[in-house]
Amino acid sequence: MQMEAYLYGKDLHAPLAEKPERMSDEEWKVLDRKAMSAIILSLSRNVAYHVKGAKSTKEVLQTLADMYEKPSAMNKVMLMKKLFKLQMEERKSVADHLNDFNQLTTQLASVNIEFDDEVKALILLSSLPDSWDVVVTSVSTSSGKEKMKFDNIRDMMLNEETRRNQAGGSSGSALHTESRGRPDTRGKFRGRSKSKGRNKGKKEMVCWNCEKPGHMKSECRAPKKEKEGRTANAAIEETVDALLLSVSSSSDDWVMDSGASFHSCSRRDIMEPYTTGDFGMVYLADNKPLKIVGKGDVRIKYANGSCWTLRDVRHIPGLKRNLISVGQLDSDGFHIMFGDGKWKVSKGAMTLARGLKSGTLYMAGGSNPNIPFAGAVSQADLWHNRLGHMSEKGMSVLKSIGRLPELKSVDVGLCEHCVLGKQKRVSFMTTGRTPKMKKLELVHTDLWGPAPVISLGGSTYYMTFVDDCTRKVWVYFLKRKSDAFDTFRRWRALVENETGLQVKCLRSDNGGEYNSEAIKEYCADRGIRMQKTIPGTPQQNGVAERMNRTLNERARCMRLKSGLPKMFWAEAVSTAAFLINRGPSVPLNNRIPEEVWSGKEVDLSFLRTFGCLAYVLNDDRTKLDAKSIKCTFIGYGTDEFGYKFWDDLNRKIIRSRNVVFDEGMMYKDKKESLNDGKMEKEVVGLDISNTRIPRPADNDSVGVQMEETDQTEEESEPEPPPPFEFRATRETESRTPLALGRVTRKRRAPERYSPSLYYLLLTDCGEPECYAEAVNDDHKSKWELAMDDEMCSLKKNDTWELCQLPQGKKALQNRWVYRVKEESDGKKRYKARLVVKGFQQRYGIDFTDVFTPVVKITTIRLVLSMVAAENLELQQMDVKTAFLHGDLEEEIYMVQPEGYKGDDQQVCRLKKSLYGLKQAPRQWYRKFDNFMLEIGYSRCSADHCCYVKRFGDSFIILLLYVDDMLIAGSNVMEINRLKDQLSRRFDMKDLGEARQILGMKITRDRNTGKLWLSQSEYIEKVLCRFKMEAAKPVGVPLGSQFKLSNKDSPKDDSERERMRGTPYASAIGSLMYAMVCTRPDIAHAVGVVSRFMSNPGVMHWEAVKWILRYLRSKLLKSSAPLSSTTFTLLRYT
């Protein structure tokens, strides 16, 4: 269209039409040539090159149209994208924006896309900046139902720009837009001449060109500055505005800057890792450009040794101050607070950094790159630990009311154990509720459990009661959920006797322990109203739920800090409850629950750090013994005077007031070994035949004795004085504390039937559960050596390579698994295995097929029968790290192993399979199968893990069960040759003559031609597991008195509850394995009892125990010998 207008202006438009009849050919050619020349001379050289072959003006225009106005789909898409992305920039003139808009709509019209007049008007309005929002809203409202016209919108925009310029603003001024075009003089000069206001406003203006006050850019007489950033290079570099101050200061100072787009630093030496490159430009306030030459991470070290890392800090040489971008911190999930001349950065429950305001700047300066973080002075840390990891706010309240007079500061800084124990999702804002006015008017209760580990006293649950008025909490420990009603009944008697008041309302969830008829009838008889939450709304019982979380968090922090095993969780919860009752409560306006409840002022001077080392005076010593015993502090005594300690060496609890604490040394820091891991491997023997009522974890009792449930009521005792005023001498408790009053005993089943003890016996034998426990274990050096061996195997096998994680890929997590294995000679071998968390794999992306075969037990028995009959050689080999030999077909990434990390930014790209991967067994089998076929062995069609090769009259049979191999054959030379081939291809361990396979002990007498299979060790472990090692033996697998049927199954919930803790399915599984391997004589009996696994009853369980008693009678005769007298293979069709 522009070319046509150009030709009309030169009076050369005739060649655009057909040749007139009156014009000669020669005249037409000359005119056409003039028009062609005019067009070509107006083109750039690059464009003119494309039309040099054109013969006429029409051909030139057609060529240009094909190049730039070709109505292809892609061209249409590109033009539409440009139109809808078009946005008017602040400070840009309306005329320029309209020109850009019209150019795009004209180009679209040339490719047959035209817009309705109203649509053009709407698109134009939507392209205006935010400062025009009020104008857009006004136009949209005033138009009503009438269609907008493009010309009207265009005129309105031009008029609005003129009005703004006259008012002294700019097209990008949000201020004048919000005031609907009026100058910013309303209210300021009321009653005065407006001209003065305008003059004053103009004096305060700053020119964008010369940066001098008193005039605008349009009135500036100074030479116009070039518009930086609008060159062709702007399309390929990142241009970001950064705020920098022109004042001089140290290059080590850091400024918290809300205007910076990212963290910036002028020093290269403090960035690690560092990446060089062209990352664009930044422009300062004076329009001076600075180049970003690299980026990296700056590590900020806390006073307690922990570090915070500022990620992606830009390296900009020439910066006058280092900047911490508030915007980037917010994007990274940090919370930033400014006020009262201070600033603070936090994330979740932890405070990362804080500083002071200097002048008008929030400074974070200091030598080196370190920011002054929350001061972790020793006294604040010490009291933070003593108070059970109380928050800084709670400590501040105690300090303000004079409970911590010697504490100068409550700044704790980052407590790693608080992060590990308390980190949570960001909560929603909630409104508070005023507590009740009277004690026991409303009581909140909840039951927590089951715990994954049985406590020192055998408990798996705990029950809390929280008084709404005083917010005091009581904690009771239970072995069974069914003990909840008795616990509530006795707690009620205790508190009502202590206060003289009555419990009026009990609020709980809808758990089964609160829905029994017994508790309903009990509350109804005593006028106690029961409030139960709606199912699925635990928020209605928020006080109890929140108390449980607080107890668990603080107990977890204390246990992690001390390094005590998980079985001490109850002692940690007891101590947490004791400390919560002596700390400020927000619902009570920071008053202390124990003081509100009892009316007595609490004393905190006797508090000590949970899990610290303590030297307890030993009264039961000889004249030459040490006067003290090294113990671990595990809680406070209230009903029982003194502190409570755990004696590792003698495996008992001690109460004493004659003690010296070493709060700088925790349980995990003790250097002496504990008799070959005695503490982890032994089961705590608790004499629970003489027990008393459960006492709460605070004012009433703390320790193992709280965890007993079948107890009678004791008299309430007054609040005892602090431990340092105690006059009682040290007492020791080898099992549980002595009862203080008369006790009554309830009849109960023998201890060997206790579900709690059963689960306790199933715990590990002192094997660490994670890397942190292994490096703090008494056998740390052995575990480290085992991990080093595993890493050597992985490196030797070239299992992975380090690389950067590609975009869109996820790295799998891993963990260390630790096991203590017993060799055939009885020696213990410490083994560590790096295992990938395969449950994070995604089907179709990280794996496809996972099935892999193993040799059948029947095949093993058949081959062993052949060995006995034919007097064959029987050898055994083991593959070291078998799964590492498999080749991966998928692209899988894994994080670096804990304890062996190099560059934190890199991950492991797996080249070989690894333990834990879903496809690892299959890949190992495929590799081994291909190897056996390569060396001439045939795979048995009936059992794919049985390989056979013949050598004339001799043969070799190899059986594979994952990484265990049995090799049977008559030719010793060929067997040795096979061993050598296997050892060259895989990392093998030659075990020599076979002695054990899959837990079956192989005993052979080659002189008589007999071979025995024995599972005596396995059966002994099964008997011990189910507490049947001392049971009376019987002579038949199943007695005639057992007429088992579904009639013996539980009929109601109480019977089912009784059987719920019975390990029926586990016992059946253990018996089945013995039956398949070496005990076919119990096949019928096991088949009978397995029919009732879905709903077993007491009689069914008695039948299972009968089978175990039968196995005990045959313990020394685990299997009949496989004799060589007859060996006939029969075939059935």
Automatic annotation (TrEMBL):
Comp. bias regions, Acidic residues: 707-718
SMART domains the record matches: ZnF_C2HC
Pfam families associated with the record: gag_pre-integrs, Pol_BBD, Retrotran_gag_2, rve, RVT_2, SH3_retrovirus
Annotated Polar residues bias: 165-176
Compositionally biased tracts (Basic residues): 188-201
The keyword Iron is annotated on this UniProt entry: no
Domain CCHC-type residues, every copy: 207-221
GO molecular function, one term: nucleic acid binding
SUPFAM superfamilies (UniProt xref): DNA/RNA polymerases, Retrovirus zinc finger-like domains, Ribonuclease H-like
Organism superkingdom: Eukaryota
UniProt domain Integrase catalytic: residue ranges: 431-601
Keyword Transferase attached: no
Keyword vocabulary terms for this entry: Aspartyl protease, Hydrolase, Metal-binding, Oxidoreductase, Protease, Zinc, Zinc-finger
EC number: 1.2.1.27
Biased composition (Basic and acidic residues): 177-187, 1045-1060
Residue ranges of the region described as Disordered: 163-202, 691-732, 1041-1060
Single GO biological process annotation from the record: proteolysis
Entries under PANTHER family matching the protein: TRANSPOSASE, PUTATIVE-RELATED, TRANSPOSON-ENCODED PROTEIN WITH RIBONUCLEASE H-LIKE AND RETROVIRUS ZINC FINGER-LIKE DOMAINS
Protein name in the entry: Retrovirus-related Pol polyprotein from transposon TNT 1-94
Origin species: Cajanus cajan (Pigeon pea)
